[in-house]
């Protein structure tokens, strides 16, 4: 009896210690002690390079993409900056053209393979100047090939355009980009995930965001495999009925 | 003398005996039911990729057909725009030989382990084929789909024979443990010869119809 009492008391002591330790680990840290330096706002006022991207993207019923991108680049420095616009596609575009300050500019083809079509536009930014790049292309959106649904294909979209800047001395450059634009769809989307954008009435709207990402699903009906499946089910069903009646 | 005459009369492969063999029936049943399960799962989007489709030794035909329809997945726009064929396809003659021979040898020889791995592997082959066929029907052209179904039937025949051999070997081992004697049925040799012929036909047809 005595040993039972001792064991009960020991268990209670253990329980008390465990709850106390939980309180220690789980105790909230006072707000004054938190390091808030990370969240101190970054307004872009001290950036070396600032770009404003406006775009109009149209994705039609056949997933053909017609896009117009307008990029304004601001060089806030007293030195020349080498600028590079990289454009990456999943599929070789049917048409691509670029204009710098209203004049057509050469596009360097890095690769035009299936699944890896890369293009580059190079130009120099003089000190304290603005440049406007206008890019026009048509391409095809490809569904996620690792997740091919027979009832719905998954697609995603983010801007294929990336900017790169460097100086002659490879100095560190602060770069800020803001996106403004609309992606208009020619069909109804399902399971839409709009990251940094608002999707409504077949239009995804991006306002004042440095990054955006859009996932969606396009519905389809598997007719051929459906017919074969119905035949298979019918054959199996008739076999079972035949055997049960025999 | 009459015995000699009888042996001369016997065919090299007794197809009737093979078709009536209980192990062939069991193997075919496992394959067809697992095929139906795989087809159901893929058709209803329970799985959105062919189960083990990338493992060639389970069902090599999937990887062989994939380059033909992968460009049409988006809805046929690729073929209309004369897109380039996917480069660096892993399929070559060695791939076809390796996967057909290894799968047949694997299924039949795993009978040594009392046939359980044979049954499991046969089930996986059926399920993988069942999950691959709807994709081909849906996205490949009719000509490719017909070729794929023909090759699938031949591959199923080979795997059914290999599985029946494996099951029979497993059954023989169990009998040996129980009765301490080995009885080899003549049909087993017939099935082995037919399996070898089918594997060679499969290799040639898969290479000619899909890879070359």
Number of domains of chain B: 1
The rounded Rg of chain B comes to 19 Å
Largest sheet of chain B: none
Distance between the termini of chain A: 73 Å
Which stretches of chain A are low in confidence, meaning pLDDT under 50 for 5 or more residues running?
A: 19-44
Main sheet summary of chain A:
8 strands, mixed
pLDDT averaged residue by residue of chain B: 86
> Percent of residues of chain A in beta strands?
over 45%
Share in helix of chain A: 10-25%
Strand residue percentage of chain B:
under 5%
Oligomer: heterodimer
What does this structure look like?
The complex is a heterodimer of chains A (246) and B (212). The longest helix of chain A has 25 residues, at 2-26. In chain A, strand 4 and strand 5 form a beta hairpin. Chain A has helices at residues 2-26, 223-245; strands at 49-59, 64-75, 81-89, 95-100, 103-104, 108-113, 116-125, 130-140, 152-157, 161-166, 175-185, 190-195, 198-200, 203-209, 213-219. Chain A is flat. Chain A has one domain: Immunoglobulin-like. With 246 residues, chain A is of the alpha+beta class. Chain A starts with a helix and ends with a helix. Residues 19-44 of chain A have low confidence and may be disordered. Helix content of chain A is 20%, strand content 46%. In chain B, helix 4 (60-69) runs parallel beside helix 7 (116-139), helix 7 (116-139) packs antiparallel against helix 8 (142-179) and helix 8 (142-179) runs antiparallel to helix 9. With 212 residues, chain B is mainly α. Chain B has one domain (15-43, 60-80, 89-211). Chain B has helices at 2-9, 15-20, 22-43, 60-69, 77-80, 93-109, 116-139, 142-179, 186-211. The termini of chain B are far apart. Chain B has 9 helices and no strands. Chains A and B meet through helix 2 of A and helix 3 and helix 7 of B.
């Amino acid at each position: 009896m005595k040993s039972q009492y001792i064991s009960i008391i020991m268990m209670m002591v253990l329980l008390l210690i465990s709850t106390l330790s939980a309180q220690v680990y789980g105790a909230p840290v006072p707000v004054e002690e938190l390091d808030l330096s990370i969240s101190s706002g970054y307004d872009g006022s001290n950036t070396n390079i600032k770009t404003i991207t406006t775009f109009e993207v149209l994705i039609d019923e056949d997933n053909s993409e017609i896009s117009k991108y307008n990029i304004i680049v601001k060089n806030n420095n007293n030195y020349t900056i080498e600028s590079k616009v990289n454009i990456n596609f999943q599929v070789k575009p049917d048409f691509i053209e670029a204009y710098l300050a209203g004049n057509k500019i050469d596009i360097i083809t890095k690769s035009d393979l299936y699944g890896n079509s890369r293009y580059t536009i190079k130009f120099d930014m003089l000190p304290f100047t603005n440049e406007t790049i206008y890019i026009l292309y048509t391409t095809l959106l490809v569904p996620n090939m690792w997740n091919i649904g027979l009832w719905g294909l998954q697609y995603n979209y983010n801007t294929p355009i990336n900017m790169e800047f460097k100086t002659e001395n490879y100095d560190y450059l602060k770069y800020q980009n803001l996106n403004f634009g609309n992606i208009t769809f020619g069909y109804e989307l399902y399971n839409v995930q709009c990251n940094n954008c608002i999707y409504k009435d077949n239009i995804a709207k991006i306002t004042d965001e440095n990054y955006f990402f859009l996932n969606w699903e396009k519905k389809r009906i598997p007719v051929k495999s459906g017919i074969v499946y119905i035949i298979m089910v019918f054959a199996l069903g008739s076999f079972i009925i035949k055997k049960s009646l025999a | 003398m009459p015995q000699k005459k009888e042996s001369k009369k016997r065919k090299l492969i007794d197809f009737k005996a093979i078709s009536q063999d209980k192990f062939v029936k069991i193997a075919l049943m496992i394959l067809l039911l697992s095929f139906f399960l795989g087809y159901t799962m893929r058709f209803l989007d329970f799985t959105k990729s062919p189960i083990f489709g990338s493992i060639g030794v389970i069902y090599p035909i999937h990887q062989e057909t994939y380059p033909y329809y992968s460009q049409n997945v988006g809805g046929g726009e690729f073929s209309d725009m004369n897109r380039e064929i996917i480069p660096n396809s892993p399929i070559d003659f060695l791939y076809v030989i390796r996967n057909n021979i290894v799968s047949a040898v694997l299924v039949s020889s795993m009978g040594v382990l009392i046939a359980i791995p044979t049954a499991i592997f046969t089930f996986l082959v059926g399920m993988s084929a069942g999950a691959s066929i709807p994709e081909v029907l849906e996205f490949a052209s009719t000509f490719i789909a017909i070729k794929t179904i023909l090759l699938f039937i031949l591959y199923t025949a080979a795997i059914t024979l290999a599985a029946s051999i494996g099951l029979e070997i497993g059954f023989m081992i169990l009998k040996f443990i129980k009765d301490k004697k080995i009885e080899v049925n003549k049909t087993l040799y017939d099935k082995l010869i037919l399996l070898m012929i089918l594997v060679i036909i499969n290799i040639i047809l898969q290479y000619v119809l899909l890879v070359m």
